[in-house]
Write a structure and sequence with these properties.
This protein is mainly beta. The protein is 0% helix and 34% strand.
Length: 182
């Protein structure tokens, strides 16, 4: 299975992608939501299609470095039980280099994947796993973190990747919600 730089995790198990929002919503296992922001902040709410165990991965957007490659956005990952029709409001950071964080609100707190505004990688909070984005170095943007099938990288081709200098576009934030058990 390839990571976010190619075919996204779970898509080879029957989930679909349409535009920048996709997934199945029928209660079966697999990807339930996969969404990126592009150049505009996305604020929406995920509704759990069925009760069960879910894994939520959240990337912060990458940055444009002022004199070097931009830093990468952070990755936060959390596994939790959701009830059918439970609502999870989320915001996905755009690739506009403003430092806007990606967030998702759970019943017991908020998970945040920050976005940098320079060459230093951003941090994450509120997840079971919180990984810091890579630093930009020279003309190369920082690599977004990887964890358990979520594969990061650099530049606009991967969520959270820092831009290459001097004329690159950073990766936007991304959310992936996968049902992994009953």
């Amino acid at each position: 299975m390839q990571g976010l730089g190619g075919l996204a995790p779970g898509l080879n198990r029957g989930a679909t992608m349409s535009g920048n929002k996709g997934g199945t919503n029928d209660g079966s296992y697999g990807v339930k939501l996969m969404r990126t922001a592009g150049a505009t902040t996305v604020s929406d709410t995920f509704t759990a299609p069925s009760a069960g165990l879910y894994r939520v991965g959240l990337y912060g957007a990458g940055a444009i470095g002022p004199s070097a490659g931009g830093g990468a956005g952070a990755l936060a990952v959390r596994t939790l039980r959701l009830q059918k029709d439970e609502l999870l409001p989320y915001t996905i950071a755009p690739n506009d280099d403003t430092g806007t964080a990606s967030t998702i609100t759970f019943r017991d707190g908020v998970m945040t994947a920050n976005a940098p505004t320079g060459a230093t990688g951003a941090t994450a909070t509120g997840g079971d796993i919180n990984l810091t984005g890579g630093n930009g170095s020279g003309a190369t943007g920082g690599a977004a973190p990887s964890y358990d099938g979520l594969v990061g990288g650099s530049a606009a081709f991967t969520p959270g990747g820092g831009s290459n200098h001097p004329a690159g576009i950073p990766g936007s934030g991304m959310i992936i919600i996968t049902k992994i058990g009953d």
